[in-house]
Task: inverse folding
């Protein structure tokens, strides 16, 4: 089964660390990163989709994707 997550965060090193942690946990980049202005916070925000193939599991909406 392939799992999908969309990581997002402010345009700072915390976002880069979030993506790096996902990559070091076996997630792979999926598509191009996004970059947009968040009018509510007045800041730029980044986003990146990641996927991970896990064997022997059935999808459960209650699963915590970050722990896979």
Result:
């Amino acid at each position: 089964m392939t799992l999908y997550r969309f990581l997002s965060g402010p345009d700072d090193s915390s976002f880069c660390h979030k993506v790096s942690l996902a990559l070091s946990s076996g997630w792979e980049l999926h598509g191009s990163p996004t970059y947009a202005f968040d009018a509510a916070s007045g800041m730029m925000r980044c986003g990146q989709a990641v996927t991970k193939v896990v064997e022997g599991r059935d999808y459960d909406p209650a699963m915590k994707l970050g722990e896979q």
